[in-house]
Amino acid sequence: MIETDAPVLLSHTIRLGYADTDPAGILYYAAWFPMMERLTSEFFYLQGLRQDTLAERFGWWTVSRSTTCEYLAAARLFDQIRVELRIGRIGDSSFQFAFRMVRTDDDVLVARSSNTLVTVSPDQSRIEIPADLRALLTAWATEGT
Predict the structure, then answer these.
(1) Side-chain half-sphere of 14: how many Cα atoms within 13 Å?
(2) What does the longest C-alpha to C-alpha distance in the chain come to?
(3) How many whole angstroms separate alpha carbon 95 and alpha carbon 78?
(4) Mean pLDDT (the chain, rounded)
(5) Which CATH superfamily is domain 10-142 in?
């Protein structure tokens, strides 16, 4: 699992709702993935990188290659969870976002995750990370936003 000491780029605190949980009131494991995607989309949006216009504006866009999640502690209905976004590994044609999900009442790490994104051309062929994006990724990994 990804461990990174990169700065937090964006965080969002949510209160778990009934739709997030299983019949026992424990967070349904797959509920983390939409939370991570929303945080990623919001981060890109705030950076002026609207995912729906990347190919048109820059000639590249990103697609998810793999996502992992490690579940470390139970989270229950109405728990407040802080989801944190950081940069993980930066490769030749892919990079990772790393996530930490922390229960705010007791600061317990309840899950950690990563999503690997690949840069592709408009026809979805893998390409090297463009220089402009690489510069942003490197800055985010060391300085934050």
Answers:
(1) 21
(2) 48
(3) 33
(4) 93
(5) Hotdog Thioesterase (3.10.129.10)
